[in-house]
Amino acid sequence: MEYGDVKILKKKPIYPVNADLRKYLRFYQRDARLPVGYSDLLNFYESFPVIDKNGKDTLWESPLYPPHEIERLHNGLKVAYAMLKASGNLRVVQHKYIDRIDYCKFGNSNPFRIKIVNRLNDIYDYFYVKKADASRIYGLELEEIFSPNQVNYLVDGNTLIEEHIAGIPGDVFARSRLNHTDYNPTRIAKEFVKFNERCLITLLGDMRSYNFVMQITPDFDDFQFHLRAIDFDQQFYEGNLKVYMPQFFKENLPYVQLAMEHLTDKTVFQYQQEEQSSIMYQARSEKHRLRELRDVSIRDKISTPENIEELRLGLARHYKDEAYHRCSSMTDIIELNIKNVIRQVIS
């Protein structure tokens, strides 16, 4: 497995949600009338940094709101949480309160992270309020269609709310648990190879270790591992092919080294085929939804002609397939990726 140090030089613009995409979201019940929007949460007058238990700056800030606004915001956020988790059933928030609101200036979506607590037992959950970005929404939909993961989000105007994806941040796991004596390194390496393959096929970019989490499930004789993306801002925008291959980010070097140490070329190929088979199955089972998403995204301008040209040239070289030269959009490229996967699996 190769590795390198790819960099994203420019910040991706926020792409608006057009009428066709809103219609799609409405049909699949992703559209909602939220009581609190992203712009409402921007009305803070001051903030202070959030420091972790080790005294390190987390890059999150805790905003301070005018006293007369706090009750309205907290009540609205509780209703939004009920809409996200229970189709608006307010009984799920009957004994809950908003414990804190955090804001992050880092990244494209500048999210707000909301901590909601059950006062009966102190069990808490998080959810996020972000700018509605068409790129991110397409990424969430492709994650729902092609991965074994379910994603839960709602969109209202320029506001997107998402549920929290539980797991150990990939950079934290690499730093503190990658060499845990109870963990089978081959299983971890296998998961990274499959994750790398899925990102390339679905063109999910910028999967540096802090943009995915590791989920660990104890089994009867071992631990199972699963990598989940948590950031979808760089969905089929960049032209550099390596942006869609997690193995080329220096932040992921510990995972690449693990794969190089514990896997052979033959087993890497085997795990890539396993992921391709999974994607083929999902593509067939979700073919109607996938077709509708394709019809919407193919008309949406969510990248630049220069990036599309660069990526199709890169993929034509990577796969030795001249058909990529005929792709005129990022959607065309993903569609060809999927068709090639299906051909390889059934051949």
Structure commentary:
The chain has 347 residues and is an alpha+beta fold. It has two domains: 28-163, no CATH class; 168-346. The protein contains eleven helices and ten strands. The chain has helices spanning 19-27, 38-41, 67-86, 134-146, 170-176, 185-202, 253-262, 265-285, 287-297, 305-319, 330-346; strands at residues 46-51, 57-64, 96-104, 112-118, 124-131, 153-156, 159-163, 168-169, 212-218, 223-229. The protein has a seven-stranded antiparallel beta sheet with strand order 1-2-3-4-5-7-6. The chain has a three-stranded antiparallel beta sheet with strand order 8-9-10. A hairpin with a 5-residue loop joins strand 4 and strand 5. Helix 6 crosses helix 8 and helix 8 packs across helix 11. The two termini are 25 Å apart. 37% of the residues are buried. The model has no long low-confidence stretch (mean pLDDT 93).
What keyword list fits this structure?
single chain; 347 residues; alpha+beta; 2 domains; 11 helices; 42% helix
